[in-house]
Amino acid sequence: MSAKPINVLFLCTHNSARSILAEATLTHIGGGRFQGFSAGSSPRENQQPNPIGLQTLRNAGISTEGLRSKSWDEFALPDAPHMDLIITVCDNAAGEVCPFWPGKPATAHWGYADPSAGDGSDEQKAEAFKHTLHAIRRRLDLLVNLPEEKLDAMVLQRTAKELAAA
C-alpha cells in the first residue's frame, strides 16, 4: 500500500444523501488506501445530512462521525486536500459546470436515484436508503479491490468510468 491514500470526492446537488453515503462507505472500507470526501454543488443554507441516511449508515456499522453537508467550493481552495478521483452520484450534479479541480483528477459519473425523494413513509425511505447504500457499496467494493496498476493516475479515469457500468 502506498503511504498516500487515494482521495475520492463524491458530488451531488445538496450533499445530504447519496454523496454522504458514498463518502462514509469508502472511508469505512478503504482500509487507509482510500479516503472518501463529499460535497454538493448547491447545498441549502444550514443543510444537514439526511437523518435516515445517517441511521442507514449506522445500521450498516459505518461511522457517521464528522459527516456534514458542504459546498464543493471547499475542495477548490488552495489548501484543500488534493483529489485523485471525483465521482458525481446524481444526474443534476453531473450536468453542472464544476469548479476547477487542482491536479486534474480523474472523473466519472455513477448515477443513483435519490432515496430521499418522494412522499413515502419513513419505512419506505429507510428501505430506499438501504437499497442505495447497497448499490454504492457494490461499486466501491470493486474500486477498493482493484490492483495497484488500475489505480495509476493515467488509468484511473478509464477504470472509474468502467465501474459506472458495474
TrEMBL record:
Residues 6-146 form the Phosphotyrosine protein phosphatase I domain. Its EC number is 1.20.4.4. CDD domains: LMWP_ArsC. It is an enzyme of class 1 (oxidoreductase). SMART domains: LMWPc (SM00226). It comes from the Bacteria. Residues 38-50 have a biased composition (Polar residues). Keywords: Arsenical resistance, Oxidoreductase. InterPro entries: Ptyr_pPase, Ptyr_pPase_sf. GO terms for molecular function: arsenate reductase (thioredoxin) activity. Residues 35-54 are annotated as: Disordered. This is Arsenate reductase ArsC. It comes from Rhodoferax potami.
